Hints:
Blueprint: H1 2-22, E1 27-29, H2 32-40, E2 47-50, E3 64-65, H3 74-79, E4 84-88, H4 93-101, E5 106-109, H5 114-127, H6 131-150, E6 158-166, E7 169-171, H7 177-184, E8 187-189, H8 203-209, E9 213-216, H9 221-225, H10 234-238, E10 241-243, H11 246-250, H12 256-271
Parallel strand pairs: 1-2, 1-4, 2-3, 4-5, 6-8, 6-9, 9-10
Antiparallel strand pairs: 6-7
Helix pairs in contact: 5-6, 6-12
Amino acid sequence: MKKQWIWLCILVLVLNAGIVQAMPQRIVSLAPSITENLFALGVGERIVGVTSWCDYPEEARSRTIIGDAMNLNVELLLSLEPDLVVGDSTLVHSHLERLEELGISTFVVGPRTVSEVQESLIDLGEAVGAKEKGEELASSMELRLAELTGNVRRSEKIRVFMEVWNEPLMTAGPGSFMDELIVLAGGENIAGDAPTPWPVFSEELVIERDPEVVILTSFNLEEALGRPAWQVTTAMKNGDVYEVNPDLYSRTTPRLLDALAELIEILDAIGQ
């Protein structure tokens, strides 16, 4: 009986060692949101390569830059000897397929809503051996989301235009997480009936739908305020045009709820 117990303990140790060894130790991230989430999961020290856009947290800047999701330096990436490359499903299919052909393990994420961000944290956590931390982050997001939205009791929706880019004029449509943020904050997205999640939007339609607030995510406040045709909109007349940190609004990470908190604050101030 004693020998059986000893062999059982040895077996458990061997299996655990195999699990630890199987955890990816050299990770390459192909998107800023992925990099941020990997650090949030507590595996930042295992990241060996990132894109030129990966700037948060500050420590991410010290990793080797392998280009960006559209212009990937595959040779440099391979020289880092990664055992896992994590990419965004909306950007890098061709890159990931090539890496898989070369025998590199890949993992794809592509959350489009707040709830999918939570699910993605759990899935990514499991892929890098940090599932418990992923579940913890998802749970924290769920609690904070409930707290934030529980304070939104605005009876009338405020018309919002979310400018993603100015040339061409692009906005957030249905099926995008930015559209979801507007709705959760108690606003009405004037592009809520657009045909795609990230549509090009006409200036004429913006003026016709008369937003009460304009949110800019592309650092172009001065240019936006100077648009002659927009001066007739309620947002321009009342000075309710806001330039925000695009990283908070465009990256599918727990900080997306910081964007929601800010948006709620903006709409509350307008609604008073």
